[in-house]
Design a protein that fits this description.
By secondary structure, the chain is mainly alpha-helical. Helices cover 88% and strands 0% of the residues. It is rod-shaped and about 170 Å long. The two termini are 94 Å apart.
């Protein structure tokens, strides 16, 4: 027993239904076009992610080189500390020797003053000339004493010259070298601290990039899920439209074998159109809402990425200026 009974074949109603189906197909094509645009945006995001990965790898390499440079600076600073310690030890020994030489100079001066301030003795009357070997020995001893006195005077003059001249110059030169080395050590330490601060800032920028990559991976997962949902909805709508089109075609082409209840074709068309419009509207509304949310989220991530990338580039440019 048939469900519907057609009074008369109205080509206009059939054309209206086919036009409505064609309109729905066009809306599905528009949804497919939006999906293709979304794929294009995803491709751009993937290329941007690859660029970020390459940049991160280059930053890792630069960070390794910077760590090697810091290690070499630490080694040079340790070697400089050892050298400064050796110079300090040598300077202390030199000051000790200068003190010892000063004491020796004081003793020589005291001995010289004692020799020069001794009261002259009146020589006794010369004894009669006799050929006595003891007199010859005494004469030799007096000559030896005079020679020793002359050597003491020469040594005193040499010590005074050394104390007044070369010793003072050597001490001043060592002090100047120590001052210069201390200043260089302070400069190297300040530069090292500055570079460590810049390295900490670069590491913070890399951590921000890692967080941004995680967010982009999450966004890619959401896009994939949305794409799967869009495919499922599109496939389901296509099947429903095909089934409705076939059912309408069969109803319109089927001859009236048995009488049935009278149904207004306009009411039938209105009911079918309402159901189709409702389902398609719900599906397209969900698609548009998801697409708009994804576009807004993508724009926000792109702005954040550009700001972080510019800030990181500025941080990496600072060490080159030093």
């Amino acid at each position: 027993m048939g469900l519907f009974r057609r009074k008369t074949a109205d080509p206009r109603e059939r054309d209206d239904l086919l036009a409505e189906i064609e309109l729905l197909r066009q809306r599905l094509d528009e949804a497919d076009l939006q999906k293709d645009r979304l794929y294009a945006k995803l491709h751009v995001v993937a290329e941007t992610s690859m660029g970020i990965d390459e940049r991160v790898r280059s930053l890792d390499h630069a960070r390794e080189q910077f760590d090697d440079r810091l290690d070499s600076i630490d080694e040079a600073r340790l070697a400089l500390d050892d050298r400064v310690g050796m110079i300090s030890s040598t300077s202390a020994e030199l000051h000790d020797r200068l003190g010892y030489m000063g004491d020796l100079s004081c003793k020589v001066q005291e001995l010289s003053s004692r020799l020069t301030t001794a009261p002259p003795t009146v020589p006794p009357p010369p004894p009669p000339v006799r050929d006595d070997p003891r007199v010859d020995a005494l004469t030799e001893r007096l000559a030896l004493i005079e020679t020793k006195n002359q050597e003491i005077d020469d040594l005193h003059q040499a010590i005074a010259a050394l104390t007044d001249g070369s010793t003072t110059d050597a001490s001043e030169a060592d002090d100047d070298r120590l001052t210069d080395l201390a200043g260089r050590l302070d400069d190297v330490t300040a530069t090292l601290e500055t570079q460590r601060d810049e390295l900490a800032e670069s590491k913070a920028g890399l951590e921000e990039i890692d967080a941004m990559r995680t967010d982009m991976a999450s966004m890619t997962s959401k896009v994939s899920s949305l794409d799967s949902r869009m495919r499922s909805i599109s496939f389901e709508l296509t099947n429903q439209l095909t089934e409705l089109s076939d059912d309408l075609q069969r109803l319109l082409d089927r001859p009236d074998l048995e009488p049935g209840p009278q149904i207004d074709p306009d009411q039938l068309q209105f009911t079918l159109n309402t159901q189709i419009e409702e389902k398609v509207g719900q599906a397209l509304g969900a698609i548009h809402q998801s697409t708009e949310r994804l576009a807004a989220e993508q724009a926000r991530y792109e702005i954040k990425f550009r700001e972080d990338l510019a800030e990181l580039a500025e941080r990496l440019r600072r060490p080159a200026l030093h």
